[in-house]
Amino acid sequence: MNRAFWLLLTTAVVGSILGAGCLGEAPRDNPFDPGSDLFRNEGTVSGQVLRRDDTPIADVEVRLIPDSSRGGTVRVARTGSQGRFLFEGAPAATNYTLQAEKTNFSIAVREALEVRAGESEEVPPLHLNALPIFNEVAVRSLHISRWWPEDDLFFLEVTAEVSDADGLIDLDRVWLDVPDLGFTVPLEARSEGQFDQIITADSLPASNPQALLGRPLFLLAQDREGVMTQSNALQLARIIEETPVATSPKDRVLLTDNRPLFTWDPFVNRFPFTYRIDIFRTEVNRDVLVTQQDGFSMNTTTFQLQTSLETGEYFWTVAVVDGFGNESRSKEAGFRVP
To answer: Domain ends where: 230, 256, 279?
Structure first.
């Protein structure tokens, strides 16, 4: 070997030794490198919660739930004004469940979600279905006495005010349920969000409204997605068996004053109540309510009409109404105004 070759070899070896001694091991500062001290086996999950019409929903609680077989912490976030949520630093793993929940909405769930280390996952929007809400509900009994036919009438009146954040068009049906008796009956829509039904005694179990006393009654509403909500339990408080008696004017008497004084017998009972007066004018094939006056105390037995009645034929009734709205109405008393 010549001298030039040995000189080249010696230079390479020395350079290699010096380079190793001076540079050391290359730094590993890449956060995506599993060998780096900066490496975090975590990812980010974000998304949006919307109504069925794609408008955002704020203040929704969103949970990122790890697979139960692995254990781990359930992470919780809340949506902002645009319905968006964000989970940062979620451990990389598969089979997460994403759950969105808000009062008066059904729960939305997305399963089999994967979080990848160092990646941001934007999930498809979660849509929440607004539930029907009962704002007001009432169940009351009605007892109506009459001259003909002689048998008194008994009714159950059910009313409900229902709303739905997805719009009233989303309401599919509303009904009464008496589970103890296996009895259900639909309510009719009367105006926006208002439902009611008057149920005759012969339509009730055993054709007897007394069968409902003390039993839990529920109102249920179902939307077009088939989701149902149920009211709190109601109870029919009372059926007023006795009826008040209208004493004057009556028997189609011809009055001399077109602002008559109405009188009735005292109604004796053991529960608080008020009186209500209804005055009707008889027209061809129908009776027209002229005036209704209510809230008369238990000790009142007279009422002086302050407005003049037009010429015609009339009848009036006096009703007893308790604190729950249960009612008992007198037979009709007729009179004429010249």
So the answer is: 230
